[in-house]
Amino acid sequence: MTTMYDLAKEEYAAIGIDTEAVMEKLAKKPISVHCWQGDDVLGFDQEGGLSGGIQATGNYPGRARNFEELTADFDAAMALVPGAKRINLHASYAVFTDENPWVDRDALEYKHFEPWVRWAKERGYGIDFNPTIFGHPAMNNELSLSSPDKETRDFWIRHCKACRKISQQIAEALDDETLCNIWIPDGLKDVPADRYGLRERLRDSLDQIYAEKYDRVIDCCESKVFGIGLESMTVGSNEFYLAYAATHPGVYDLLDLGHFHPTENVADKLSSLLVFFDKVPLHVTRPVRWDSDHVVLFDDPIKEVATEIAAIPGAWDKVIIGLDFFDASINRVGAWATGTRAMEKSLLYALLQPSARLKELQDTYQFTEKMILGEQAKSMPFGAVWDEYCRRQNVPVDGGLFVEVSTYEAKILPERS
Q1: How many Å apart are CA 349 and CA 298, to the nearest integer?
Q2: Assign residue 58 a region: left if phi > 0, alpha if psi is -120 to 50, beta otherwise?
Q3: Distance (Å, whole) CA 183 – CA 52
Q4: Paired residues of 143 in beta bridges
Q5: CA atoms within 13 A on the CB side of 129
Q6: Residues 120-147: pLDDT tens digits?
Q7: How many CB atoms within 10 Å of residue 317?
Q8: Pairing of strands 233-234, 319-323
Q9: Cα 153 to Cα 347: distance, rounded to the nearest angstrom
Q10: Separation between Cα atoms, residue 385 and residue 299, nearest integer Å
Q11: For a surface tag, which of 11, 320, 358, 387 has the fewest beta carbons within 10 Å of its beta carbon?
């Protein structure tokens, strides 16, 4: 019997695309999925809400409240997602027990994350890691590594050093590498009197943090254009971190899709960075008017990012894909599954584009044929290949996703009321 996929396979073969090879390639590309969608970025180590321009809006019932609930929800979500996965942790998700009681963030150790390592190893996941420099009393007027107060800076320097050491130990335990990403909300609400001093102190703090070298840690810093309450100036701008990365080998500039002006095209930045850097880490999110971290969808900005990753020579291995969204207004397992599937779907769509032929047409100035072929590729039977990929990965096709999410919700979430 001829299936929809059989017909799609033939149609793609006619334009030089091997759908079998595409699905095999996609299945091996890991996506680092953020743990903080499951509990609205609250973590396990502090009481109180968010700060630093971060908001998780909504009050959908059933938020995960501890390690057991968060990992159970993550398992449920990832069972609905095809392809290889990693988990991305913030330091605020340290697991404290009677044997390993609470410590402040500057005293965190590997032992506080051993439960995560055991859990990840059982599932074949890698782990990425982030210092948590927000939602803490030591945020001095929303300043941390750039604060004019030395005691404040020193606290966060110790925290970041601890996190880099933990990242190395996690990587050793998993025989892997760990991406360690530093993001700070530091900035000012009103017009600064001294921008330079803030950035000079941030540079000095980073120099201290990165003084010790680790062979299994991929270090990066995440820029931002502004935050709520920090509208006039953000210390860690893209210019600052890009310049820092360019002058400090082994440190990379992480691009978050929500951390730029709404008219900027983040996909366009990849080719520039890949000319100079051997790695480009990403946080894929969906900004709506500002850095609102909506659930990633299969939309044009994400497809364009994926197309760059698939088409630029070497980018498939050099671009490190992480997700970063949090929506407290909808089922969190559904959010995780939908957003991660959308990233996978975008990558599949990108791999199915005739990129080599389009490049050839561009380089030989055949712009009319390039335009027509590009338009043809948009209406190819992509959905049939996506459904086949999901079936082979033993996850539901799109039509079956809501049933799985709602069944889990009905079974598990009422117990958390």
Answers
A1: 10
A2: left
A3: 11
A4: 140
A5: 33
A6: 999 999 999 999 999 999 999 999 999 9
A7: 10
A8: unpaired
A9: 40
A10: 18
A11: 11
